[in-house]
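User: Some background: our group keeps a shared notebook of sequences we're curious about, and every so often someone picks one and asks for a predicted structure to add to the entry. Today it's my turn. The entry only has the sequence so far, pasted here. Could you supply the structure so I can complete it?
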Amino acid sequence: MSALDNTGLDSGTRRAMMETGRRVLALEAQAMMRFAETLGDAFADAVHTMMRARGRVIVSGMGKSGHVGAKIAATMASTGTPAQFVHPAEASHGDLGMVTADDVALVLSNSGETRELADIIAHTRRFSIPLIGVASNLESTLLRTADIALVLPKAREACSVGLAPTTSTTLTMALGDALAVAMMEQREFTPEHFRLFHPGGKLGAQLVKVEGLMHTSLPLVTEDASMADAILAITEHSFGIAGVVDGEGRLTGVITDGDLRRHMSGLMDRRAGEVATRNPKTIRPGQLAQEALALMNARKITCLFVLDAETGARPIGIIHVHDCLRAGIG
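Assistant: Of course. Here's the predicted structure to add to the notebook entry:
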C-alpha cells in the first residue's frame, strides 16, 4: 500500500488522477485537430451570413449546449458582433419575440434532435430568418432544416462512460471562438474597438489612452519668465513641475523641484529658460496610458507633458503617475 502524502492521497491514486487528466486533454486535443482539418466552406458561409445581419446573432441551445451558447454569444458581443443568447424553453413561452427578421439564428445541439429547439427552429422558418445549425449528425432534424450546417466531427466523449458532454462541448466552444475571431479579422477589429466593449476591469485599464487621463490645466511659463513666476506655476498646479515654452507655444524644457535645488545659488536672479532641463520626455494623446507609465517608471519621473498630435511640439496636457495608478494601470 502506498504511503499517504500531506494531502491524504497515496501515490498510486495521485498518478491515476493525473493520467486521467492527461488522457482527457489528449483526446479532446485530437478531436480539435480533426475538426480543424475538416472545416469547410460552410464555415465561411456562416461567417458571411452573420456579418451581413442587420440585427443580432441569436444563439440558442439546451442543457450543456446552452451554457456553451451563452459563452459564444458573450464572446461575439464583446468582439464587435451584436449577439444574444435566447434559452429555447423560454423562447417557447414568449421570448421568441426577441428573434426578429433582421437576426441570424445560431442553434446548437450535439445530437441535432433536441426537442426543446423545435419552436425556435420553426420560428426561423416561418419568418425567413437565416438558420445556422451546429450538430454532429448531418442527417439530424436541425442540420437538415438549417440554411447552413456546421457539422461537428464524430468524437468520443472524454468521460469514462462516453455519455457526459465533454469533447462535444469543447468542439462547440472552439467553433464559436473560431466564428467570432473570423468576424473580428474581417472587420479589422482593433484594440481601440476592444476597449469600447471592455471599459471596466484590467482589460479596460490596459487600453486607456493618455488623452483619457491627462489634465488640461497646465503649469506653463515662457522662456523669459522670472523664477518667481515659475515657482508660482509649480506650486499652483501641484505636479512638482512647470513646462517652459517659446514664443510660439512649443515646449522647450521643464523645471522640476530638482532643477530648483540644483540652481539654488542665485536662483531668483535667473530666467526660466536658464534653469530648465532641455529635451524633456513627452508623450502623445493617442498613446496608451500604459506606455506613459512605463516611460515614467523607466526614467524615474512622475509626470509627462502631452504634446499635440498635429505638431508634436505644443503641450496640451500633463499626465501624472498617480493618474495611471488610480485608473488601475500598472
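Suggested note for the entry: The chain has 14 helices and twelve strands. Residues 108 and 210 are 43 Å apart (CA to CA).
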